[in-house]
Write a structure and sequence with these properties.
It is a single chain. The protein has four helices and no strands. It is mainly alpha-helical. The chain has a single domain, classed as NADH Oxidase. It is extended.
Length: about 110
């Protein structure tokens, strides 16, 4: 097997492992993330593709009281603002989509 094919096969295994172990995080630890970890995450994120390389994101890192103010403002906003999704929610879920929602709710 050529070196290129071996490298692609290895990358395939890594991708499969990443996809198999991904999860949605709905809770967070109450301790700060160290700067080295934040820096590494941001360096890796810079490699993410964007349409026509527009890179439409802005990152703001907070700590201490700034994080507390941001948390309070986000909580207040979430509790009072009208829901405005990018894509409208369906009127109802049917079939497999309904089953998936029920399984997700049962798991929480």
């Amino acid at each position: 097997m050529s070196q290129v094919i071996q490298e692609l096969a290895a990358a395939d295994v890594v991708l499969e492992e990443l996809l198999d172990t991904r999860f949605s995080c709905r809770a967070f630890l109450d301790r700060p993330v160290d700067r080295a970890t934040i820096g590494r995450v941001l360096r890796l994120a810079q490699r993410s593709p964007s349409w026509c390389n527009v890179q439409p994101w802005q990152v703001i890192v907070t700590e201490g009281q700034a994080t507390e103010r941001l948390r309070d403002a986000a909580t207040d906003f979430a509790g009072t603002a009208a829901v405005a999704p990018d894509v409208p929610f369906p009127a109802r879920y049917e079939g497999v989509f309904q089953q998936r929602r029920r399984l997700r709710v049962a798991a929480v």
